[in-house]
Design a protein that fits this description.
One of its GO terms (molecular function) is arylformamidase activity. Keywords: Hydrolase. This is (apollo) hypothetical protein. Pfam families: Abhydrolase_3. The protein is of the alpha/beta class. It has a single domain, classed as 3-Layer(aba) Sandwich (Rossmann fold), CATH 3.40.50. It contains 9 helices and 6 strands; from the N terminus they run βαβαβααβααβαβαα. The protein has a 6-stranded parallel β-sheet, sandwiched between helices. Helix 2 crosses helix 3.
Length: 224
Amino acid sequence: MDSPILVYVHGGFWQTLSREISRYPALPLYRSQIKTIVVGYDLSPFVTLPEIVRQIENAAKFVFEYAEKMGSRGMYFAGHSSGGQLVAKLLSNVDFFEDNPGSHRLRGVFLISGIYDLRELVYTSVNDAVQLPHEYAIPLSPLFDFYTHLQSRKLRVYILAAQNDSPTFKKQSREFYALLHNILMQNVYLEIKDDLDHFSIVEILAEDDNYLKNLIVYDIQKHL
């Protein structure tokens, strides 16, 4: 009942994929006694990006309450691509953390090929569905948020990207790492993984033996 919990938020540029398609981490992590909760959300263009951010906050609130009720030994979040943006926005919301007692169980975050500066998407085809106005790009970009409230939480943050990610994804990962490292000073890690691309870096979680699953399991078990 007190198992550690990993919450996984899928990518898809806020307009594709689902929690049903993204259940692949659950079984391999279950075999390592880690409970996985895959979070879904409504997709663009049917809802706006601010609404998707609110849906993730609501889902996280539910999971924090569940973790508190079950006495979980630790909570973790992982987000891929646009899911990385959604998890990072959750981290930046100081009011959310203060209003949810179960948030004290949060131990670590894994941000995988995330999107941290939305200004670079506004004038691309990605925005055809998202329909993000230019003036919303900075407020919805984790790269311009504040994270000093995390200093007292001893939170571990892993920022991961793939060698064969686009230059923009790798650049944004490095920039977000620099931002968090300057604020938190420790427990922030950056790794660019060889021989993987934007999709394989997370899809390998479906396998029983892969670097990402091993990293998650190692971090969780080390700090139980």
